[in-house]
Amino acid sequence: xxxxxxxxxxxxxxxxxxxxxxxxxxxxEAESGKTFDTLNPANxxxxxxxxxxxxxxxxxxxxxxxxxxxxxxxRKKTAAERAHCLYKLADLIEERSIEFxxxxxxxxxxxxxxxxxxxxxxxxxxxxxxxxxxxIEGETINANNSFFTYxxxxxxGVVGLIIPWNFPxxxxxxxxxxxxxxxxxxxxxxxxxxxxxxLYVGELALEAGIPEGxxxxxxxxxxxxxxxxxxxxxxxxxxxxxxxxxxxREILKxxxxxxxxxxxxxxxxxxxxxxxxxxxxxxxxxxMTGIFYNQGQVCCAGSRLFLEKSIHDEFMSKMxxxxxxxxxGPGLDEKTDIGPVVSKEQQERILNYVNIAQSEGAKLACGxxxxxxxLEKGYYVKPTIFESVNNNMRIAQEEIFGPxxxxxxxxxxxxxxxxANQIAYGLSGAVWTQDVKKAHKLAAGIKAGTIWVNCYxxxxxxxxxxxxxMSGYGRELGKQAIELYTNIKSVxxxxxx
Length: 497
Ligand code: NAI
Ligand code: MG
Description:
CATH architecture of the largest domain: 3-Layer(aba) Sandwich
Shape: globular
Largest sheet: 7 strands, mixed
Number of strands: 22
Distance between the termini: 83 Å
Radius of gyration: 23 Å
Structural class: alpha/beta
CATH class of the largest domain: Alpha Beta
Bound molecules: 1,4-dihydronicotinamide adenine dinucleotide, magnesium ion
CATH superfamily of the largest domain: Aldehyde Dehydrogenase, Chain A, domain 1
Number of domains: 2
Strand order of the largest sheet: 14-15-16-13-12-18-19
C-alpha cells in the first residue's frame, strides 16, 4: 500500500522532540505551564502536545522583539546580510520538503499530493523577498531649491503575524518573508489546529543565522489567548492577519489601543464563471480543483460556479461523474485525492451547511455527508455539489470553507456580472471563455483582488494578492507587501542660511 507508515516518516524525529515556543532565541514552555494537543484530522489521534501561550508569553516575546529591533544585530546588518539569512532559510526549508509535506499532511489533513508543494512554495517566497531586501529605496524629491528633500523607507518595528490553518507552511512565508526582508522583528502566532510546521521553521530560522529575538513563535489560541494579546499589545507596531472575516473585525478592534497598522486577508466566496464557448474539459477540471483543492479550505475557493444555461446539463453530468470517482482517504496515502477537513468543528460546520442548503431548496447532486466506514474516526466530508442554487441562498453567500460547491445557472454576461458581485466578499474570481471581449469585460467587472481567466488558483510570489470589500485590505506578495511592512519618512534639510 502506498500509504506512508508512521514508523517510516521522515518527520518522526521532529515530531518526537518536545514542543516548545521560540522566544528570544530560546525554546520555552508557557509561563502558565498550560498545554494543548494538536490532532491528526485523519484519525483524531494526538500528534503532539503544544505550549498554550498566554499574556505573559506574548509580553515576553514582544519585549524580545522590541529589544532585537532597537538594539539587536538585525538592523545593524546590511541589507545583503539580511538577504543572505533569508536565502539560507529558504534552502533549509526546501532541503526538508519531505518532512514539511508529512507534517503539513499530519497536522492539517491535506493529501501529500498537495502538501509536497508546501516547502518549495515557502522557499520560493522567502527567496523572492530575500531579493527585495537589497532593493528597498527612498527617493530624492525636488520640492524646493532651498532644501534637500528626500524620503526614507524604514521598517515598521515589531510586527505580529497571525495565521490560519489552511496553508500552515506557506502562510509563514507570506508573512515572515516581507516582514524580515524589510528589517522588522516578529512574533508569529500559528493557528492552534496546525502549529507544527511554524515551529519547524523557527528551528531553521535560528540555523539560518537569524539573530535571537528577531523571529519569535508563540503558540496558543485566538480569543482571550495569544492571538488577542498579540493584536491588542501596545508595543506591537503592526499586525498582519489571515483568517475569517469576523475575526478580522475583532483584530481591528484589538488594534485600537495604539492604532497599530493592520493588514487583513479575509474570507471569500469566489465566482467561477463558465461560458458556453469555454474549453469545457479544462473548465470542469478547474471547477473541481477550485472547490476540492485542500478540501475546499481555501479563501479563494471557487465556491460559486456560474454555468451558462446551454452547457449546464452536460457540464454537470461530467463533473458529478468525476467527483464521484475522487478517492477520499488519509492524506498520507499517495493515492488520496481528498483528505479530511482540519477539525471536528469544521466538519460539523460544513455538514450543517449541507442541511441549510437542503432546507433552502438547493438540490444535492453528490456527496452531502461524512463517508463513514474506514474513515469514521477522521473528520471527513464527501466532495459535495449542490445544483439549482440561487445566489441569495446562504450556501451562495457565506464562506463554508469546505468541499461544498454551489452551482448557479445564468443566461447573459450582464446577469452573471451582477450576481458575481452580489456578495460581501471580493477576494478572487475566474472566467472561462474563448472570447477575449467577455474575458476582459469580466476581469474589469468583477469586484475582487484577483481574476483568473481560463485558469484557477494561480499564484506567484511576485503577484499581489488581497481583497476588495469584506475580504480585507492590504496586498500581500509582490512588491506591495514591502509597503505593508515599511513606513515612509520625509526628511527636510535646510540648505539656506
Ligand atoms: P480564525 O480566523 O478565527 O483563526 C485564524 C487565526 O486567528 C488563528 O491563528 C486563531 O488562533 C487566530 N484568532 C482567532 N480569533 C482571534 C482573535 N480574537 N484575536 C486574535 N487572533 C485570533 O478562523 P477559525 O476560527 O479557525 O475558522 C473559522 C472559519 O474561518 C472557517 O470556517 C473559515 O470560514 C474561516 N477561515 C478563513 C480563512 C481564510 O483564509 N479566509 C482561514 C481560516 C479560517
Ligand atoms: Mg475563530
